[in-house]
User: Fold this.
Amino acid sequence: MNYPDFSVTVPIDHVAVEERVARLNKRSIKKESKIFALKLALSMMDLTTLEGKDSEGKVIQLCQKAKMPYGPMPDLPTVAAVCVYPTMVRTAKNAVKGTGINVASVATAFPSGMAPLSVRIDDTKYAVDEGADEVDMVISRGAFLSGDFQQVFDEIAAIKEACGPAHLKVILETGELLTYENVRKASDIAMDAGADFIKTSTGKISPAATQPVTLVMLEAIRDYYYKTGKMIGMKPAGGIRTAKQAIQYLVLVKETLGAAWLDKDYFRFGASSLANDVLMQIVKQTTGQYQSPDYFSVD
Amino acid sequence: MSHLEVLKTYKMFIGGQFPRTESGRFYKVHNSNGELLANACLGSRKDVRNAVQTARGAFGGWSKRNAYNRGQILYRIAEMMESRRAEFMKELTQIGFSDKEAEADINASIDRLIYYAGWTDKYQQVFGSVNPVASAHFNFSILEPTGVVGLIAPEESPLLGLTSMIASVLAGGNTCVVLASEKYPLPSIVFAEVLNTSDVPGGVVNIITGKRQELVEHLAGHMDVNALCYTDKLPTDMVTQIDELAAENIKRILKKPVNDWNAEDAESPYYITQFQETKTTWHPVGF
Assistant:
């Protein structure tokens, strides 16, 4: 494990980051490339339901959608994973059995993370015991912002240990980190502490994922790869609702990390409503007719 | 000091704004003598898409306005038209209407708005019903707006025809996407300016100018459009195309058999109910 030097702050050129994003957004992805990108986006999706009102029925319904995103087109790829609360993991696990779809669980007192470490570790272990293949944890933003990077690092390492074989995604909640420099620093700490993925947001606060923040994180992943040879995954989550946005994210990934990352093992979208827009665009590309949400399942 | 005439840029009307076409294209509009009047937007399929999207977004709010308020707003459109008489006169006379014809056309347009404004809070009473049933139920039928209506405005009546179609659809609580007259699109944009100053919420009416041949396919095939209205003056092959595409999601279709937009049968409450869905409710009651 690399033990990071917490005193180092990587400077971020804000203007350049935003300009690069704006420039890449102008890429025109049409026809076959668009279909390819849309299907890729679908296969990278973590179909998510994280609400207090979630029930077993809702989760099973979500899993059905994960398995068969759109009935009339049975050859479409399945999504990468369904993402639920720990108490719903077993239900989800049973519902996607034998499909290759992973079950991801948020843990560590999601979304605030405001619980004693022992509770957060138990939360994680519970999710893994229930069958979660992936765990999405939140970092202690309060500790991070007050400069206690050591604590943040140690907690991530402890959760990583509790995960065992499950993959760990570390949610930085970039909307609360205030600056790009903080995002970069939190990314570095998370990767050094053992994250398999770094993830922007819980989706519970605004702003959630933005493209500039994602670019900063992707560059952190790139630098970490150059340093260690280890490929870390990236998951923007929250606020990505349209197929167009999704394609813009894929361009960012391709241009920053290369084609090797254009795979569900290294890139995910955390989203609930994105799937329908991607499906509508795929159907539009196939039939030539603009689609209506009326003909796609709500959940 | 001499005054340099400032020519108007005619843009489209989408979502309560006046954007240029997404495609950046334009076409030349001529008067009846073949002289250039203006460059109009040559709308594209993406403009249709944007217009339908904004019409769908506006539908919830507009359909929930109470009938009386919808009437007020239609009345307001008429008021605003009244104050823009001179502009409409200019638009109509330059495309071949005589002064008298133009004035009659404007008068009829205003009257039509008032006519449908009056119907907003009445058609429900006339066409809704309480139905006799043999069980212990209070059974009643009410009308609800169909949704987003695609209007292919008449080519030959760029103002009155357009106004008539829009007014009847709005009165019933629908929102619409209008393909303006291809040859004479300019009056529709002046009408859009009237709408924009008449408390009509943005997105309720969206007006696109351009070539029918290009746009009709995308409007008729759009799965989020619930109904279509066109006149019987369209070419047969276009009508076939529209009807086939509309069948995909079973759009309601009103083929308006209007020859003379000034005629008495050009206004009718049935033009409101054509774009209404009947909902019947069985409410249990004791005898």
